[in-house]
Amino acid sequence: MLKKCEVHVVVVVVVVVVVVVVVVVVLVVVVVVVVVVVVVVVVVVVVIVIVLVTTSSSSRLLVVVVVVVVVVEVIVVAVVVVVVVVVAVVVAVVAVVVM
């Protein structure tokens, strides 16, 4: 049988490992999301420039719609990132409290 202090040490080690894994996963997710957002914004800017240069004023509505869609998408992505970070912080705090 493990002694009481040995059990506590094992629990602490497991909790620390879990917290580290969660933090690494969160960082990876945030980096991926940021890269995706940057790529989307660049693509949309290129499309808007092409549309503005090559079309008449009647097609400008399309540009407005695309801009609105991109802005909404960026906002949604930002909210998701914030939620993920908050969840990770809560998990880390709970883990520390458990220790």
TrEMBL record:
InterPro entries: MetI-like
Domain of life: Eukaryota
Keywords, ordered alphabetically: Membrane, Transmembrane, Transmembrane helix
GO term, biological process aspect, one: transmembrane transport
Localization per Swiss-Prot or TrEMBL: Membrane
Predominant localisation class: membrane
Domain ABC transmembrane type-1: 27-99
Entry-linked PROSITE patterns: ABC_TM1 (PS50928)
One cellular component (GO) term of this entry: membrane
UniProt membrane topology term: Multi-pass membrane protein
Transmembrane segments: 7-27, 33-54, 61-94
Protein's name in the database: ABC transmembrane type-1 domain-containing protein
Species of provenance: Elysia marginata
